[in-house]
Amino acid sequence: MIRLRHLTKTFETSQGNLEVLKGISLDINEGEIFGIIGLSGAGKSTLIRCINFLEKPTDGEIIFDGMNMGDLSRKELLKVRQSMGMIFQSFNLLAQRTALKNILYPLEIANVPKEEAMDRARELLELVGLSDKANAYPSQLSGGQQQRVAIARALATNPKVLLCDEVTSALDPNTTSSILQLLQNINHTFGVTIVMITHEMKVIEQICTQVAVIDGGNIIETGNVKDVFLRPQSEIAKQLILPKGSEIHNMTGKRCLRLIFDGNSAFEPIISNMALECRAVVNILYANTKCIDNKAFGEMLLQLPDDDISIERILAYLDNREIYYKEEELHV
Amino acid sequence: MFEQGIYELLGEGIVETLYMTIVSTAFAYIFGLPLGVLLCVTDKDGIFPIPIINKVLGFIINLLRSVPFLILLVFILPFTRMIVGTTIGSTATIVPLVVASTPFVARMVESSLKEVDSGVIEAAQSMGSSVFKIIYKVLIPEAKPSLLMGAAIAITTILGYSAMAGFVGGGGLGAIAVNYGYYRYQQDVMTVTVLLLVIVVQIFQEVGTRIARLSDRRAK
Ligand SMILES: Nc1ncnc2c1ncn2[C@@H]1O[C@H](COP(=O)(O)OP(=O)(O)OP(=O)(O)O)[C@@H](O)[C@H]1O
Ligand SMILES: [Mg+2]
After folding, report:
1. Domains of chain A (ranges plus CATH)?
2. Interface contact B142-A90, CB threshold 8 A
3. pTM for this structure?
4. Is A199 a pocket residue for ligand 1 (Cβ < 6 Å)?
């Protein structure tokens, strides 16, 4: 669907030439959700803007749907752009138009008859779950809602490709998830190819099928998500994929706690809550608990971390929850 | 309070002032709006960069703007006579008013249009909008509140210029202030004229600001 061949882009700035893309070749097939991940300044935005020629590449080829983008006349280019939707980190809705009229915009540009355009716009609002917000202005919508309108707008002219530049970076984790879900549904139902630029690996993980890692204007790794994520080859890929602080903790603590649940405390994920609240990791050496009538019964043996402040927090947490415990000798 | 005839005179003055101001503003926008658009789109970061046109146009505009209004008015008297056949009265004043305020309006329009979020323009481009469609479907509607605010400033500035023209044979409240206040030392007539000018300016400014604010759909 999209083929990039030896794409380069050099910006001429007052401080000299800046080579941002240094020969990028990629194949993006129809129906894929293709992720491109890289650190800030790697050239991701420049790359995606080259795909629809918002940025004219210095050299190299972009073949979209069998057409060489560089060979198109200006008029043809405008026409081709109608088959490539684009969404952005900052939503970029027309502030003086309602949600519905924002979706009508690309249809006006494509000279779709008024009534037909109206039906299409309403249908899209429904698709993104915002039928009740047709007459709201962007300033009256949350970020997630604005991004939904932007997605509806980008889909209005039935594009074959959806270009997404950091579309979830301005959203909270829950909203991010629901937007990604929506994009995935769109990909499944309409077969729209999606190019997803991001610096967050959870975005790639959640919806992408293919991934390319970009650094310093070069693609340094590419393949399907599972392969790249399981066996990242390059330093950058490792850095992006293995989030900081997730390396396995070697438990070296010498102290040990026996928790006793005698039916006084509610049955709740006590250990996970404790880990979150105390920001401390414990090792469960033994556990035998039951939930009876929503109360916890049983015992649990925990190895404590090797730092007194964490231990103090853990003990305070347990006291607070009125969970009975006693300290024991560690025999492992 | 005043001798007979003064009231009629003041009434006529107001009508003439409004006539000069409104007609001049209309013409200033007929010429200035397209020029402002041209300045904005041909800028090197604009949607259709043509640096040569941008520089030349910018230079001419700066040149015109650096000539003080009264001097410009006198300087172009032959041109004024050529267009309206005379150099005195309200209609004759409209010519220099338009010449002086068109560059000003062009700059105001340019700066309003440049406030439009570049991301929104990029989105419009990504949907295959032509330059022309971006201008009239994105730039102008998105900048509307700012353009209206600019128009309120333009109209009050032009009104101020029109009063200045009173010194050299223009009509309206300015001429009354000059004739009665400056040449005949009638302080009272002068005072009333000034008050009227202040009131008219306030009304234009207030109404303009309100309309601009009402038309703005961004967060209040
Ligand atoms: N129009 C331009 N003129 C000059 N330099 C530019 C231009 N656009 C981008 N650059 C430079 O190109 C480099 C890559 O920019 P780009 O926006 O593609 O990065 P990115 O990977 O999208 O980063 P981010 O994650 O921060 O958005 C940066 O160093 C930037 O300063
Ligand atoms: Mg970017």
Report:
1. 2-240 (3.40.50.300), 255-329 (3.30.70.260)
2. no
3. 0.82
4. yes
